[in-house]
């Protein structure tokens, strides 16, 4: 049994664990990041690890970044290594990485250096200043700046077309990405969405309901917004949790919402959990409702559900 683990990250075929010592242990498909032997001597004092579909990036305490895994999925950062200094945070899309530096600028890279996959931010580089947070879809990034403005780049069909209505993307508090779309929570509690309409990028049908929003969660192709009154609004692909009508009467006094690949789970104030979406992604927890109730009473149990092969 692996012990002393501080953080876990996963690609589509491997895991990476940060140990309490700051070292890293990897396992799984060697071609997807399961073999880190060639960079093992560099994996010290690691603070954070993120993953694309087939590679990992480790942020060290000294602000340097170490990458490994499939070069196609950005496991090779040699082209930008000299720029990866004083890094504060690294974000991964499905195919590329983006690093926020201490001065608020951003460095990006991907395996094929394709302009429409997120690894090339040259078209917006002059706008990537004072960045405090980055969200990602499978093939695009959205950066939130200190002035509450948003900058997007990558594949247009995956959310990079945010530039088309950037004048509306002001006063933004937070950004969340599904696989193909973004949702931005504004400081006034409203929500703006863009990207693939089938992936949650079109919220017109629930626009009037998206008020006083406190939190947004994403699945692969849908979003769920938690409002200040404890209710939840959903949109996007119905098979991915975008349709919550079957449980809407139960979605009251919700305090937090979490998304899986194709489902959502809402935790209520009284500790109960309401789920919806694909049963294969955890959208049905009826079989373990009693265990969930017990975990609330004694505070000692962690209960998991869904398809065994997916967690």
From TrEMBL:
<dbReference type="InterPro" id="IPR051553">
    <property type="entry name" value="Ran_GTPase-activating"/>
</dbReference>
<dbReference type="InterPro" id="IPR009091">
    <property type="entry name" value="RCC1/BLIP-II"/>
</dbReference>
<protein>
    <submittedName>
        <fullName>HERC1 protein</fullName>
    </submittedName>
</protein>
